[in-house]
Amino acid sequence: MGEAKTPDASRRSERSRQAILKAVVEQVGEVGYTRLTIEAVAARAGVGKQTIYRWWPTKGALVLDAFLALLGEPAALPDTGDVARDLKVVMRATLVELVNPRFELPSRALTAETQMDPALAKQFVDALMRPNLEATKARLRVAQRAGQVAEGVDLDVAVELLFGPVYHRWLLRTAPLTERYADTVVDYVLAALRPPGPPGSAG
Amino acid sequence: MGEAKTPDASRRSERSRQAILKAVVEQVGEVGYTRLTIEAVAARAGVGKQTIYRWWPTKGALVLDAFLALLGEPAALPDTGDVARDLKVVMRATLVELVNPRFELPSRALTAETQMDPALAKQFVDALMRPNLEATKARLRVAQRAGQVAEGVDLDVAVELLFGPVYHRWLLRTAPLTERYADTVVDYVLAALRPPGPPGSAG
Question: Quick one: DSSP state of residue A148?
């Protein structure tokens, strides 16, 4: 897709690309990842199979791109000064996405596939998970500077304490993912990260 | 397998059962879940395909049983009175299992499959995850009675705070799973659950 093109050809390419990615999401939703075929995606998108093979080396890469297109840009992390409130916004948004049927099936398909395909897993983490984890880490770093999070806290562990329980519940379907659950996780994690001091003294 | 049998027939059945489960683990390790076939398992175990179909309704159920046989009985949770020490024993054991190549591949295969098969997911959780989560919850309840964990704590959330981060890191392969990581997670979670009081007074 890096070649020089006339504006019309570029527009056509982009239209085909969008049609393919949309067809992938629909197909995954209907037949699941394993039974998704390039043939069916091509037919649904109205493009030739070769177009798909030219742009995406594997089925995994294609589904990953479709998923990224579906999600769009990650929401910016708010910074109101109130770290609990800001983290609750993020965790609630994560949760709403995980239980949205439009996202849930492709998410599960991709999670399944990444278990058996470490290269795809790395792409998935780098493109999708890492930016969210890093944004959350950055917000916690601000809280650390503001004295709301203890100095010695390992922020990599802190973000996993936030996201881990939510994904664990989603993955295993052990209990409903409610906003109250997201809030409780945030409250507990912030209690763990709080700087030492008399009870109730920290933000 | 509930029918009355002569002792010899029972022994033969049990031998076949063990051979089948062993063959499943070896096959999953070699070709992965998707390409595992009942034919290949039967050939490797030296039994007829019908024997396998008679005992296991689906490939998922077969792999789940093979995995349960591989894991054996869950280790009892220690209760030394020191809740931090006891939880570290559990979390380290969980982590050692997750990174053991013998368990890792079947674990990932099963994790992948449960994403697309909610009925298998439920069996997996009930047979494998729930007992561990409940045992940990019981240990936290003892700690709660001993005043090491605050009264109002939601213990279902507490166990997810312990296991969620470890599984998250394993699932996404974001960073190495070390014993130090397990210990850090336990320390942070216990800090979150601690009853209110002057700093350093609890645990």
Answer: S
